[in-house]
Amino acid sequence: MDESISLDDDYQRIADKWRLRLLDKIPFLESQIGFAAVPLDGREVTVRNGDSNWGMFIADQMRMAFRSPRSDLAFVNSGTLRIDDFIAEDITFEDIGRTFGFSSYLRHMTMDGMDFRKLLEAGYRGLGPSKGYFPQISGFRVCVDRSRPDGERIVQMQVPMDNGQWQEIEADKAYSIVAPDYIYRGGDGYDFSKARDVSRPGSELKFLVLDAVIRAQAAGEKVGEPLSPVNTRFVLLGEKQNVCFKNGVRARIPRG
Fold first, then answer.
1. Are 133 and 122 in contact (CB under 8 A)?
2. pTM higher than 0.85, yes or no?
3. Euclidean distance between CA atoms 110 and 196, whole angstroms
């Protein structure tokens, strides 16, 4: 459905009535809290299937949820992000409210690289598009082959090095991780049984993102960036490819 579908007058009268009641209770709902540098894509078809600049921004904030030092890795199940729309130009309180339809507290923990890689396989299982368990990620990038069996689809999982290049996640190295309490407790099929040093639930995600947008506004900065091969985090393995990333950069996809 889009703007080409005309509104039903009777329905619109009902919607307008309840919106007026909502604005009466939350008069600041339409107030600007920030500005988008580019349209931020929160559509379900985007966040549940691949990279989303709105999803990236949200996942990036999670790494500072428990203050300094920021966690190495973070991810959020895309079903947490409910707005199913673009956010363009002004960012309002309503945009944050529409993005997070329910509370989403976070947990901080430690996992070895091999265990984290196995855990994240749950995000790429099954057939068909638009899965709410698909992860929006921060601090790493993945190459996925959907032709492989469930549990064996991650071809590469890379983390950044200090020199700006990338390397495969180290199997026995301990990484600090932030993830939603909902999936830590088994939601969306994720298994965190190998996690250790797990914090209590804290730092509600919608307020974390709200604070980040307001801080950017106070600093005169805009939120978000366009997607490009330079900042890609999720790549599907193409035909005639063995890997997606080569020599620290994204591999060229053969044509034909």
1. yes
2. yes
3. 5
